[in-house]
Amino acid sequence: MTESLRALERPEASDAERLAADPVLRAAVERWLQVAVEGAIDATQHVVAHEGWTPPTTARATFLTLAGHGVIDVALATRLGRAAALRNLLGHDYAEVDLVRLAAIVRDDLGDLRVLAKALAPWIDS
Fold this sequence. Notes:
- Helix 3 runs parallel beside helix 7.
- The radius of gyration is 15 Å and the shape is elongated.
- The longest helix is centred in the first third of the chain and has 29 residues, at 23-51.
- It contains seven helices and no strands.
- It is mainly alpha-helical.
- It has one domain: Four Helix Bundle (Hemerythrin (Met), subunit A) (Up-down Bundle).
- The chain starts with a helix and ends with a helix.
């Protein structure tokens, strides 16, 4: 997750015009974002299993489980649930990706993954 987030810090990763003009850049950004969100889901599932909490049936529910146990707040869990849905879109090509929205996510929303990583650090770093 950390490596993908670092790669997404590149200025061109949040530029919709550059994403539209460069299919390799677009593919890289989509993949980095997918990997970052998958890393967040995996880390969250690790914490749920470690604590012996009831395993959620979806990635979205995994984040809500963390919120239910006070690890993260509900607003963050809800936003991360939407990130899981985006991961599905990117990974399974359900629909055409809106490049303006993709660029905005890279520019504005990656902080949520960093906040999650910090909240999970006691479990992941041990």
